[in-house]
Structure to design on (320 residues):
């Protein structure tokens, strides 16, 4: 199962369409969470989707997927790292009206290459990368700790103690 | 026992806030988020650490584009702070965290802003505004840190 999630705000047609085209040519189940679509937004023809799902359903779908495909949002990245799921992400571009600023480009660049995280620069890269990531069937690199770095925990503890 | 309020908006901010849980060891920890969805999983996570959740409050969701909701959100944060009177407030953002920092200062809390790890090039807008009012102002990227704050003391992952 591939779980596609693009956050809860603007639509992300480029990514949704790329996954839809891939899904039309493959026999792998896909589920999409597409956020707030607009009148002219692209609607998938080859996989079921919802605009919004509850946090519980998100967690269930995350746990049961073999590949997470998402916009380059921190929620998606942290979810993927925490659950040790491979993540294929593509950055929303403000220049294309997909976000309010270009911070997802920076986020994608910073996290690309980190265990299990993969970046599609453009929509045509998405399909081939899904093929590759599924084919690799790579063993996840092991779930990361569910907690922040010890240094940050210690700094916060000191602050709470009033040190 | 030190009373801590951990507060953030839902989504990535909340995921990051949850990763700070071990820092609240030995405290009375109250949680607030702009979604009611997380309570069961928060309780389970807290139980694993042996840290009971003192309370969980769902606050109206808002952002800078929804002004009316923003006002409602602020009033809910004020009410929550007057009710809880936390000693310490910790937030990872965004607008709900900004309000908690600004109002918390008036109610005598010591406050900590941890800017989201999503902001690796520059501070978030809410961090830019809230940070200077926080007693501890942190970024999760060394490149963003400055001597007068935000400081870098590690990251949530």
């Amino acid at each position: 199962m591939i779980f596609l999630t693009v956050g809860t705000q603007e639509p992300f047609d480029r990514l949704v369409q790329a996954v839809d085209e891939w899904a039309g040519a493959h026999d792998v189940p896909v589920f999409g969470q597409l956020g707030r679509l607009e009148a002219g937004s692209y609607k998938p023809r080859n996989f079921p989707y919802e605009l919004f799902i509850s946090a519980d359903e998100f967690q269930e779908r995350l746990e049961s997927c073999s590949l997470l495909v998402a916009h380059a949002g921190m929620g998606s990245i942290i979810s993927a790292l925490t659950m040790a799921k491979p993540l294929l992400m593509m950055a929303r571009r403000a220049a294309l009206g997909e976000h309010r600023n270009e911070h997802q480009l920076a986020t994608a660049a910073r996290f690309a290459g980190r265990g299990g995280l993969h970046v599609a620069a453009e929509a045509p890269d998405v399909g081939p990368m899904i093929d590759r990531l599924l084919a690799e069937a790579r063993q996840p690199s092991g779930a990361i700790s569910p907690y922040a770095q010890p240094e940050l925990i210690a700094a916060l503890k000191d602050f709470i103690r009033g040190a | 026992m030190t009373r801590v309020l951990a507060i953030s908006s839902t989504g990535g901010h909340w995921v990051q806030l949850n990763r700070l849980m071990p820092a609240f060891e030995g405290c009375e920890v109250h949680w607030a988020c702009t979604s009611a969805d997380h309570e069961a999983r928060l309780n389970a996570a807290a139980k694993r650490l042996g840290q009971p959740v003192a309370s969980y409050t769902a606050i109206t969701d808002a952002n800078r584009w929804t002004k009316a909701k923003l006002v409602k959100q602020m009033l809910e944060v004020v009410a929550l702070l007057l009710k809880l009177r936390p000693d310490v407030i910790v937030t990872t953002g965004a607008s709900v965290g900004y309000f908690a920092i600004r109002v918390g200062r008036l109610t005598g809390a010591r406050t900590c802003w941890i800017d989201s790890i999503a902001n690796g090039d520059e501070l978030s807008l809410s961090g830019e505004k809230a940070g200077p009012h926080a007693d501890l102002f942190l970024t999760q990227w060394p490149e963003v840190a400055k001597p007068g704050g935000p400081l870098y003391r590690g990251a949530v992952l």
